[in-house]
Design goal:
The protein is of the alpha/beta class and about 350 residues long. The protein is built from 11 helices and 13 strands. α1 runs antiparallel to α8. The protein binds pyridoxal-5'-phosphate.
Length: about 350
């Protein structure tokens, strides 16, 4: 391959986070109860499926199930291969090459990845102290699209509902609210999708629903916008096994409820335990916690990984110097994490 063949804007694009260590994964913010309990039954049923047939191009069965769950119309929804695909479809649909997308900073790393691979440019507006959203700073960028996630990854706080609504109301263009951790939060923008011309809410089966390996996500917006997004999405992008599992998971709300309950029971204790070890812990409204290490975070993470527990290092990012993120685990997992962290700090 000649370098000159590559699209100029993509020559320096790095590979995504791809850790090679064998360790207990507390770095991905998934449901720590293990795979969704609906899976045994639904995967058995999949044996009888005609998997020589294509899935429905727009996953109508799952869209109907989502419509029932939220009290919306099935045509409010677009579903696909993870909410990551949904983000890709949004930028493909609305952004001309060279146009800008505004995102708060720090936030989800892949937002700017999807902007870049679609030929756009990310502009960021720093979060205010306490990682609060600064709506005016975002609006001031006059970007084509605005995207934010609440609860925010990796800072773990939710943004003030009024601040987000201000962004939706005052931005002249699509606004994406990424609710990947929405099941853990008290508020959602999902009920508002028909109220705004420009609101898109994305959600996923990867986190609270415990189905990350099956890659299922969805977005909702008003009917006109959803219709446009649907036409851009790659037909058949959600496979039949994943669609069946997602429908079964919606019929098994108890698993999600238990995951949320576990987080509510364990989060404060884990935060206290981290503080007792000398870490600065940021407030969390989700199933993960961001905390700041008094020793270099890259060393902390690699030494902890050598002891069998993997957490995620964000310490190279501006405003997150020496910060790391861990999933809130079960009581047992959290104890293991704290024990190993204590050893690392004592050996330091
Ligand atoms: C994990 C995550 C996603 C990705 O969800 P998938 O459905 O697995 O593609 C999207 N946004 C945020 C903020 C996330 O943390």
């Amino acid at each position: 391959m000649k370098d000159s063949w590559v699209r100029a804007s993509l020559k320096d694009i790095p590979l995504y986070y791809n850790p090679k260590v064998k360790a207990i994964r507390m770095d991905t913010s998934i449901n720590v109860l293990g795979p969704n309990t609906c899976l045994d039954e639904v995967l058995n049923k999949c044996r009888e499926m005609d998997l020589n047939q294509y899935p429905a191009p727009y996953s109508d069965g799952l869209r109907r199930a989502l419509a029932r769950k939220y009290g919306l119309h099935e045509d409010n929804f677009v579903v696909g291969n993870g909410s990551d695909e949904m983000l890709d479809v949004v930028f493909k649909s609305f952004m001309e090459p060279g146009e800008t997308v505004a995102t708060p900073y720090p936030s989800y790393v892949l937002h700017s990845f999807f902007v870049k691979i679609n030929g756009g440019r990310s502009v960021t507006a720093d979060l205010a102290p306490g990682f609060e959203l600064d709506p005016d700073a975002l609006l001031k960028e006059k970007s084509k699209v605005i995207i934010l996630c609440t609860p925010n990854n990796p800072t773990a706080n939710t943004f003030d509902h009024r601040d987000v609504e201000k962004v939706i109301r005052e931005h002249d263009g699509p606004v994406v609210v990424d609710e990947a951790y929405g099941e853990f939060a008290k508020e959602s923008f999902m009920p508002l999708v028909d109220d705004y011309e420009n609101l898109i809410v994305t959600r996923t089966f990867s986190k609270a629903y415990g189905l990350a390996g099956l890659r299922i996500g969805y977005m909702a917006s008003n009917l006109k916008m959803a219709d446009q997004l649907q036409r851009v999405k790659i037909p058949y992008s959600l496979n039949r096994v994943s669609e069946a599992a997602a429908i079964a998971a919606l019929e098994n709300p108890r698993y999600v409820e238990e995951g949320v309950k576990l987080v509510n029971e364990q989060r404060d204790a884990l935060s206290d335990g981290l503080r007792a070890l000398g870490f600065k812990v940021f407030p969390s409204a989700s199933n993960f916690i961001l905390f700041k290490s008094p020793v270099p975070s890259s060393d902390l993470v690699s030494r902890l990984a050598a002891k069998g527990v993997l957490i995620r290092d964000f310490g190279k990012l501006r405003l997150l110097e020496d910060c790391v993120r861990t999933t809130v685990g079960t009581e047992e997992l959290n104890r293991l994490l704290l024990t190993k962290l204590k050893e690392v700090m004592e050996e330091w």
